[in-house]
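An example makes the point: we let one protein speak, the chain in one-letter code, the fold tokenised, and here it is:
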Amino acid sequence: MKRDLISKLIDWKDSNLRKPLILLGARQFGKTYLLKDFGKSNYQNTAYISFESNQEYLEIFKRDKNPNRIIKELSYLLKLKIEPQKTLIIFDDVQKAPDVICSLKYFCEDANEYHIACAATSLENSSLQHKVFPVGKVNFLDVYPLTFSEFLGAIGENFLQAYLHDYDTLEPVSTPTYNDLVDKLKLYLTIGGMPKALNAYLKDDDLGTVDDVLSGIINDYYLNFLQGPSIKPYPKIKAIFDSLPTQLSKENKKFLFNLVKVGARAREYEDALQWLVNARVFYKIYRNKAPKLPVSAYDDLSAFKMYLVDVGMLRRLSKLSAYAISEGNRLFSEFKGALTENFVLEQLVTQFEMPRYWSVLNPPHEVDFLIQKDNDIIPIEVKSDANIRSRSLQKYQELFKDDIKLRVRFSLENLKLDGNLLNIPLFMANEASRLIEMAYKQLGIK
């Protein structure tokens, strides 16, 4: 599977400001495969060490942090000559290896000729707090499940992938291509972007097998919940994880702790919830009060929504059959359009900083997401059914008319710019940043 991040890894390799790299992403996002594929294509050889399956290698980093000694010992143990700039050194599962992370400071300062790329699920949930983090001595790169564009390439739809990437007008997509893209989007909502689930589909062409794989991934996540600093938070972490379909099935999708357990209070569960956020399993979207900068100054930290990192996992966690793909547009509207919202958010986080949302209670209005583009705040509404009237988006426009240059709606309607309202068909969510730029240019917005 060709990942878009390969180009960023190549930029890192060629940069004069290159530092040891840490790839961050939840379990089974394909971090290891991505690094090995990058190493195979861009280096003479690769030195790979997993600190989950080879914990004895940790001893090498405990004695001292001398890069030259570490390289010599690794070369001997791996039976591989590690050469500067010719060998990609991959340290996997470094969240389990705080001494390894600390050593990156010395590689950066004293031996930066060695190219080191690490993979980690979470640094916040690791035991690193007992060590000294190499602040300013590492580069970071976030890894996500496959985007819809990457998904198209992986299933052999290279023409459709290029079609979306090269689309250079705000005119509607032709009807035959539109219908084809909607069908492929339904397949994406069913399978999701987890590489293992997609590989199963490509191998067997069986959605039942996909469900089995997704169930296995969810069970793997349950086991990972047990690997925290203490087993005590496990029931709470699992209960929060399992409650997500219920949370998202509400009209108002604000996260409620009493839906995790009757009588549950925030102070009892907030640490477990933060563990899921730190592990990059959940996206936490805060309510924002007004389109002002800095955005964080207007966040309401007591109100937030939670989404899962992968729409395929969310569908499986919700016990929605994979064969719902054949039932018209059911996938888009299932449990209050939560699958559609989750999908749009997944595409947005690869293009923008973490979105917010906006809501008022009386009368009730909610704008699904707010994104920041340069110094502008853009409200976004996601529609999953035939009704595309955007009452909340209109209300937001009325309240903040002096601050809003463009509104965006994602729906099953075709591409269209109507005044300052840009309707983006759901299958083009991966191109949102570029389409917004085009709308700005057409509207004369600077």
The mean pLDDT is 93. Residues 276 and 282 are 6 Å apart (CA to CA). The longest strand covers residues 299-308.
